[in-house]
Amino acid sequence: MRVKIHPSFGLYLLCIAFISSPYDCLSLLIAFLVHELFHYIAAKLTGEQLAALEITPCGGVMTYQPGAIPNKGLKGILVHSAGPIGNWLVL
Q: Between the chain's N and C termini, which has fewer beta carbons within 10 Å?
């Protein structure tokens, strides 16, 4: 699996650092990465077949392997709720 960071994400972080403070930018980056990391871990634990993860200012975009079908039901709910749960645990 490959991880790609969209160029606009860097611009987004620069804007946050310029408008508020570098500390706010760092806090946002950590919260964002923890959120996406928990989604990724839950996807791997539930057997999702991921091809790529792209980090954008609007969130992470997981791309599945060709022919793979995302889990539905309880496993899908677990993957979708893992990000907010990860942020809550960090708090």
A: C
